[in-house]
Amino acid sequence: MINSQKRIQNLIESLPYIMEFKGKTFVIKFGGSIMENEVPKKAFIQDIVFMEHLGINIVIVHGGGSSISKRLTRLNIESQFIDGLRVTDKEVMQEVEMVLSGMINKELTMCLNNAGTGAIGISGKDGSFIQAKKKILKKNGKEIDLGYVGEVEKVNEQFLLDLIEKGYLPVIAPIGFDKGGNSYNINADYAASAVSGTISAEKLILLTDVDGLYSDFENKDSLLSKLTLSECEELIERQIIQGGMLPKLQCAVEAIKKGARSVHMINGSLEHGLLLEVFTAEGIGTMIKGLKTND
What we know:
A hairpin with a 2-residue loop joins strand 6 and strand 7. Helix 3 crosses helix 4 and helix 6 runs parallel beside helix 8. The protein has a single domain, classed as Carbamate kinase. By secondary structure, the chain is an alpha/beta fold. Helices cover 41% and strands 25% of the residues. It has 9 helices and 14 strands. The chain is globular.
């Protein structure tokens, strides 16, 4: 009886959020590594189906770094990273696109459709969706050539909105292109940030392998549950957030400045973490409030 009452209380607690987010759009960055673990993968798909049936528009941008590395290892191609970015020559670019667009994207799209969604898999090349330019990395006053690593120059907003309006759930492989016919490997966090900002998404949700942002990563009691844009900029300026979470925080800041209403960083390995973050008052990770968010 106690458990039943708790379930009812949870449903009642979620009702205001269900009403608030109906018809809104969430952009979710999905780490390709989750596809390799059946438990969080199944829970993620269930969460997506649940939210879609509540009337929330979902856009997924996925990565796939670990799968790319495994593929390159099998081909005896050494993976090289500089500041977390994969050096991508023409041969590596072909493999990156094959893994992201041809394997992960299609498998995730199939899983979502088999679960009852209207998912459609695309890459940044489809519908001229993500126009990109070569990313120039500057380090110690010098420019470093990363090859075919790109950054988003323009997102085809109308193409994406048309898909959403027609009831599709876009699943996006972060491959960009330029007018010279070059393909580019784009970091999925940055691609998701650009997409969410372009369409002024209600939420950008970044699934990570940690619980959120910490003021002291070694102290798990220092999780930062809610932050403002100015607080995020201060964390960056004071170099409190470092390592792999720094680019994610920078992506979050950029998304909010471009129009996303809020950004969430949660642990993608936690079962049903998406629902807990979106439909409960306390959430489970870090929420960064956007410029137009009042709560």
